[in-house]
Design goal:
The protein has helices at residues 3-7, 53-63, 117-134, and strands at residues 23-32, 38-42, 49-50, 75-84, 90-98. It is an alpha+beta fold.
Length: 139
């Protein structure tokens, strides 16, 4: 059994919800729950991340901004990590890193449109008909 099966699927992000290589995310908003818990919502993920002090500190350091309202639409990378807590015990958690750069995809080259011989003949015929209608031969 994996941790999700053992401990249940929680309504907030846990380290096992994040891919081992990490996930680039965009901050949607920060919510303060009626119970006083701060939750960080992302556009790319269905569950929020609990905004603990160490998470706040890391995001503030990376973004250079302490006001959470100014975090909206900013990109980060969430990574599963292990931290040492009081007494030397280890705890699996979610770490915050600078987001991977977005790869700019070059615009595809537009190829010239090739005209078929029939199209050229049709255009020439249309021009001749139009010219004949404008300048009809008089008898």
């Amino acid at each position: 059994m994996d941790e999700r099966e053992l401990f249940g699927d929680k309504p907030w992000l846990e380290h096992y919800d994040i891919k081992p290589e990490g996930e680039n995310v965009t901050i949607e908003h920060v919510e303060k729950t009626p119970a006083g818990k701060n939750l960080l919502h992302f556009f790319e993920l269905p569950k929020p991340l609990t905004l603990f002090w160490h998470v706040y500190r890391d995001i503030k350091r990376i973004l250079g901004e302490s006001d959470t309202k100014n975090w909206e639409n900013k990109r980060l990378k969430l990574v599963p990590t292990i931290v040492k807590i009081n007494g030397g015990d280890e705890k699996e958690t979610i770490g915050i890193e600078i987001a991977d750069p977005i790869e700019e995809k070059p615009e595809p080259k537009k190829l010239p449109t090739l005209r078929r011989k029939r199209d050229l003949n049709d255009e020439a015929s249309e021009r001749l008909v139009a010219a004949a209608q404008e300048n009809p031969f008089e008898r």
